[in-house]
Amino acid sequence: MGVQLPFPTPHIEYALLLPVLVVLGAAVVAVVIEAVAPEVLRRTLQPLVAFGSLAIALAGCVGLWDQRQVVAEGALVVDGPSIVLQGTLLILAILGGLLMVESRVDPAGDPFAARASTIPGSADERAFGSRRQTEVWPLFLFAVGGMLMFPAANDLLTAFVALEVFSLPLYLMTGMARRRRLLSQEAALKYFVLGAFSSAVFLFGAALVYAATGSLDFAGIADSLSGDPTNGLLLLSGTALLLVGLLFKVGAAPFHQWSPDVYQGAPTALTAFMSAATKVAAFGALLRLMFVALGGAAWDWQPAVAIIAGLSMLVGAITAVVQSDIKRILAYSSVAHAGFILTGVLAASAKGLSGSLVYLVAYGFVTLAAFGLLTVVRSPAGEATQVTQWAGLAKKSPVTASVFSLLLLTMAGLPLTSGFTAKFAAWSAAWGGWQSAVVIIGAVSSTIAAAFYLRIIVSMWFADPADDVSVVIPGIGTRTVVGVGAASAVLFGVAPQLLLGLVNGVGVFLR
Amino acid sequence: MTSTPWLTILLVLPLVAAAVVAALPSSQAETVKRVALVGSLVPLALVAYLGLNFDQTSDGGSTFQFIEARSWIPAFGVHYALGVDGVALALIAMSAVLVPAAMLAGWNDVEERGSGSVKEYFAWMLVLESLIFGVFAATDVFLFYVFFEAMLIPVYFLIGRFGGPRRVYAAVKFFLYSLLGGLVMLASLIGLYVVSGEQLSAPSFSLFDLVNLDLAPGTEKWLFMGFFLAFAIKAPLVPVHTWLPDAAEQGTPATTTLLVGVLDKVGTFGMLHLCLPMFPHASRWFAPTVLVLGVAGVIYGAIVAIGQHDMRRLIAYTSVSHFGFIAIGVFVMTTLGQSGASFYMVSHGFSTAALLLIAGFLISRRGSARIEDFGGMQKVAPILAGTFLLAGLSALALPGMSSFVSEFMVLQGAFLRHPVIAIIATLGIVLAAVYVLHMYRRVMTGSVSDSVAHLSDLRGREVAAVAPLLAVILALGFFPQPVLNLVNSTSSWVMEHVGVSDPQPTVAKAGQ
């Protein structure tokens, strides 16, 4: 009766998966530590485990630099773009971690809520007032692990699992701000509901693409496209839904509605990491899906991507002009940046890939540093994020004002900054034919965007200082983050070949 | 040409001076100023040396001299490439004279304002000087763009930190206008990069490679428009000129001098130096449009200038009128017109600078820029009035002034090809006489009003700032040949690449 089905042991290339495995393994270890270690020990042990595993993973990435292989039974790929993206993510994670251990900025010594489950304003909360929690560390490591998997995922199911692994911890961590807790919890709920919805959309898209092509892995989908596409409508709907799911994660208009609230509500240390790393991971996955699996259907999805790119740039730039909160301004500007990166995706070529990667690297470091710098300008109520509160900052702290101006000018894309290199790389890939129109929209929205970057600079340098705002001297961690961001802005601007050579040298996606 | 990277040294000198200035303690304001002044005089000496060593005898092949080239961004085909032709050298020389003059004139700007850092003011000026040299000397279009955009930052801070009551508005308006032009130019730049990648063995931004591209007519027009818009905003031509009066009014006289006298030249310089050779067909196709814009600017700027109450706004509008002349000279496509336009750029730099700086002396004495607030100044301050008259006469192109030579050449060059344009533009000269003399009469002549009776005449420092400018104006008015020789070589290079020849080449000689 029973036919014995053979069960082959899956072949896993552990060495090639080292970065992902180390980080996910460390996350599990961190959970165990959380359960068994006493509180005092946890506070030193958790960051140690996190930074240690991230450093090992980064070293692993460097060691795997020349590896090009499909691994884990076709679930994941180790190739040039995935290693560049994973390396970038790990550096961003280390820098983001440095912001999370910062103890000198907030008077309570920690940017996260003492106990996230207590009701804001309750006696319960006050009872835990001075406590420093460590639950964020396992969550953080899971998020990083998922992000590392996402751009390397080679089939739709692995991609979905990775998406969930990094999204769920982020939802939770969004709600853990120490100050303005109601805002933070509201943001977390919004992010969770919308995020879960977008994940469902992604999954539905995956199902439709499977129905159309009979395959879940990217190579298989690409093969069936090169044949005679019989299920055009199914495939188109599936592609559209997959796109929606991913564009939600990168925060492209019109799927960006969550980002201002979440960026504003989340603890700034986390916003810094999230805004930089989520974009890197999600764009990495988007690029692989579009170029590898759906590259043969480029003519079908290019118009949609073009519209979304144009819309993101314009909506992001125009909406940011009327914002008064710097975190929200940066959130909308990140919507515009998503549009700029999409121009690279639009090119659907090797140049488009390298242009997008260059943009992601340049943008990631600068954004992380900008949010990091936001934490040091404070009023008695917490971080001072209103533009009016930053007025006259140049008089109080010329260094803070100078560095923030540099970061803003980089985001505006002024020459000799990495932002310019990035824009040039992405736009030059898309230039040609009808796609040139998107580049011109990009140029126009850059001008609009410059208006609000300038507004902050004007307020910092030319206005009279606000009274109750002070600049705290942060610890070495925050200073490192800001320093690395500013240095990358100048270095990749003055000597762009460093970054361009690195990215161009790693080649294209492996099929 | 030469193994010594003279142009790089020229670029670095002001930067070094700026760094020294920034490193000095804030308390030593006088030292800061002296170091800054010396830091701007050393480049002047170097420019003089370069001018003497510029080989004018050679024809055709070595239009560009003191050439340097190093690979900068291989992935984009970008080179750090410098080299000057006649026009570039003339404009660099003009800038090298104007920067120390502006510094001398603005010696006490910061103290009179009562706030701000002396160090910062002079350091920004030196940084700006370096970038100005770079933008004129760049022979790589990408490098040109980088300098073109980077110039915005010092000017932005000079206006926004040290200007008048509405300085922030003026600074932001200036920045956004310029950035819009710059980003549209960037789009064109990317287009050029893509086309050069298709046609050459590797993408290149070298001007010498780009002039040989074979562009499709449609593409060429689009690319031309990107560059032209940026230059038209920078110059500025009507109707994208509205930022200039605001910036000129709110900046200090020294800033405004550098802005109007030097920076705006980058726009017309770019038209002549980049647009025409790189996009010859599109330039010819758009020439009638540009000529109409130019004539409109000449007349409009002059008429609006007549109605101004603020001296600085008045001078800004006269410049709008003069930039109309320059654009006409560039786009009439005759050697005479282009040489005239190039010469116009130089002489306008000197005459506007003199006018603005002297107006600045007036304004700082009286505490007001309104023409109505003055009267009878020539009795109170005869030297001031005399220099103001000289500068004004130069602005209205009196024979014997350098501006007369250039304006005459432009009109004559225009007449060869488009008599109607030339005739209408001639009206601009009449109107110039109206606005200059009208202003002079109201400010300087008449009975001495109480509010100006106690004002002092020019001091030694102030005379030292404007005397060289007036001397140059007069010298070039009588002996324009040295500068004409310089700019003629560029004109023939441009004409050759545009592929047009003069209608009556023999007439060109008569004009000189």
Architecture overview:
The complex is a heterodimer of chains A (511) and B (512). By secondary structure, chain A is an all-alpha fold. Chain A is built from 20 helices and 5 strands. In chain A, the strands form 2 sheets. Chain A has a 3-stranded antiparallel β-sheet, with no helix packed on it. Chain B is mainly α and 512 residues long. Chain B has helices spanning 6-23, 29-53, 86-105, 109-113, 118-137, 141-150, 152-162, 167-199, 207-210, 217-234, 243-250, 253-278, 280-306, 311-331, 335-366, 377-380, 382-395, 402-417, 419-444, 460-478, 481-498, 505-511, and strands at 65-73, 78-84. Chain B has a two-stranded antiparallel sheet with strand order 1-2. In chain B, a hairpin with a 4-residue loop joins strand 1 (65-73) and strand 2 (78-84). The A-B interface holds A 409, 412-416, 423-424, 427-428, 431-432, 436, 439-440, 442-444, 446-447, 450-451, 454-455, 458, 461-462, 496-497, 500-501, 504 and B 72-76, 145-146, 149-150, 152-153, 157, 160-161, 167-168, 171-172, 175-176, 179-180, 183-184, 186-187, 190-191, 193-194.
Short description:
By secondary structure, chain A is mainly α. In chain A, 70% of the residues lie in helices and 3% in strands.
Strand order of the largest sheet of chain B: 1-2
The rounded Rg of chain B comes to 22 Å
Number of strands of chain B: 2
Mean pLDDT of chain A: 90
Strand element count of chain A: 5
Distance between the termini of chain B: 30 Å
Instruction: Provide the helix percentage of chain B.
Output: over 70%
Q: Descriptors for this entry?
A:
heterodimer; A: 511 residues; mainly alpha; three-stranded antiparallel beta sheet; two-stranded antiparallel ribbon; globular; B: 512 residues; two-stranded antiparallel sheet; 2 strands; 75% helix
